[in-house]
Amino acid sequence: MSTKRSAWLSWTTLAPVAALVVLALAWGRHPGTVAAVAVGIFLIGAVLSAVHHAEVVAHRVGEPFGSLLLAVAVTVIEVALIVTLMVGGSGDTSALARDTVFAAVMITLNGIVGLSLLIGAVRYRMAVFNPEGAGSALMTVVALATLTLVLPRFTTSHPGPEFSSAQLTFAAVASLGLYGIFVFTQTVKHRDFFLPVSTGPGSGSVDRPVDGPVDLDGDGHADPPSDRAALASLALLLLGLVAVVGLAKVESYPIEDGVDFLGFPHSFVGVVIALLVLLPESIAAGRAAARNRVQTSLNLAYGSAMASIGLTIPAIAIASIWLDGPLVLGLEPTQMVLLLVSVIVSVLTVVPGRSKSLQGFVHLSLLAAFVFLAINP
User: Fold this and answer.
1) CATH number of 2-375
2) Residue ranges per domain, the chain?
3) Per residue in 261-292, pLDDT tens?
4) Which of 285, 292, 303, 293 minimizes the C-alpha distance to 140?
């Protein structure tokens, strides 16, 4: 009885409820500095709890479905933040979707991947994963990023780095199609390519078991929770997402005011959104790498990048029907150079199927360059 009571009184259970209470109190107001910080704390708590409950449900359905569910949940939060800031933002928000999606791609390709490879290589001498699964995911990310973020810079039907209505529709449909095909490949056709590779410390062999929690069902995680616990987490996940959407609307002005106060470019708002929503993914990927499950870390990283493009761009395309102003998707030249270098480095990382700590440092260096140039373009 005491165990059940402590579970219901845990922060992951209380955070969504508390966030909804704060949302009811703050809705329709423009909070001051102190109130904005308080709302921001509850917003972060709602994000972390939402992804935690998504992970609980993910444990129940197994891998790679778990990584997929977690990526979709995070993307819902990302879309909510983008749309609410585009609607309620005070500055120029025409490029907010582009900046946020590109930031998510850079954080996943270099930040989450780099952190995971570094943790895995330092702890087990080599970070080992399945190159067929990781390569398929990376290939899809590159195709999606090129179709939605690079091509608008070179099309001529519409002035500026924007798609015409027909081009935007095609990009949205193509993104959904590519994402759907990948999900089918990951979960049905070639599911074994995306399962964790079992290796001993520093070994390239796939025959020895992984050290870590008991995993009787072989899904790459600890044994899954009960149906009752999974349903409770699903309900709390939905409450958390509602709280995140509402609190993001409340925080729209303070986020922009904070960026302006620091003297950063307005485009850095997109980086803030991406950092916020991908923080839980980074933690989950780091934990998986520490348990010698780097494949799960890469599933989370590339899956989040894919969902960020394949689901966010169609959602923003639909929302643009009701949003005023242009929708800028084409990357700037500096951003395209960073994307190109990240793709080349990612390919060289994925092809061998195992990685030293050097690759992790290189990816993290590219992330540092992206953040620095976002502040000092």
Assistant:
1) 1.20.1420.30
2) 2-375
3) 888 888 888 888 788 778 777 887 888 899 88
4) 303
